[in-house]
Amino acid sequence: MMIGMNTEACDPAELAALREIFLSRPEALPPIGSVAVRSFEEEHGILLPEPYRTFVAEVSDGLRAGPPYYGLLPLAQTPEDWGSDRPERLLAEPFPLTTAWLWEAEDDEATLSDQEFEDLAAPVYDHGSLLLGTDGCGMYWHLIVTGPQRGHVWLIDENGAIPFGTRPGVSLMPGTPGFLGWVTHWAQGRSWFADTP
């Protein structure tokens, strides 16, 4: 069960919490303003979820160091290791998942050719999400901008796709869902993954 979020209106308390976390850091990039945000949205046929939308317009358009490890990317950028031969990112196409998908746990993966598997996984990487950054080794953080998971943050890597922020015991990454929950988790220095006994 995913916890509901208001992705349509920016809560002033959420924006204040983001300001407190980011503006105390000298590596924070300046905001891009609401005109640039609207231009990006029109170009891609989307509306960014709150509080991320107001955050990049009014607080900061990225951070040179964490979250994630290699920094929070400015709007519309991809990490250096993303690769230039990847398919076009289609932000207006709905993100296809609602629950975690661990590739290695798939019984059918052994029966799929590499091409068939890539065809199934490509929309997970390239549809309905904005890249927030990387922790290296092919671990990419995505903010979902279109589809049922809009506003949630997902980790997508060579092992699968996992949503951040669900109830403990239900997810590999329990915590408060959404952009603010993800940023706060990082700012508190907590591990992304569930503690193991």
Task: Write out key terms for the chains shown.
single chain, 197 residues, alpha+beta, SMI1/KNR4-like, 13% strand, SMI1/KNR4 family protein
Q: Helix-strand pattern, N to C?
A: HHHEHEEEEH
Structural domain count: 1
Total strand segments: 5
What's the tally of helices?
A: 5
Q: What is the name of the CATH architecture?
A: 3-Layer(aba) Sandwich
Q: Any idea what the radius of gyration is? A: 16 Å
CATH class type: Alpha Beta
Pfam family, one: SMI1_KNR4
Protein name: SMI1/KNR4 family protein
Domain Knr4/Smi1-like: 36-159
Organism: Streptomyces drozdowiczii
What does this entry look like structurally?
The chain has a single domain (12-187), classed as SMI1/KNR4-like (3-Layer(aba) Sandwich), CATH 3.40.1580. Helix content is 27%, strand content 13%. The chain has 5 helices and 5 strands. It has helices spanning 12-23, 34-44, 52-58, 114-126, 178-187, and strands at residues 101-102, 129-136, 139-144, 153-157, 160-163. The longest helix is centred in the middle third of the chain and has 13 residues, at 114-126. The two termini are 23 Å apart. The model has no long low-confidence stretch (mean pLDDT 86). Residues 36-159 form the Knr4/Smi1-like domain. This is SMI1/KNR4 family protein. InterPro entries: Knr4/Smi1-like_dom, Knr4/Smi1-like_sf.
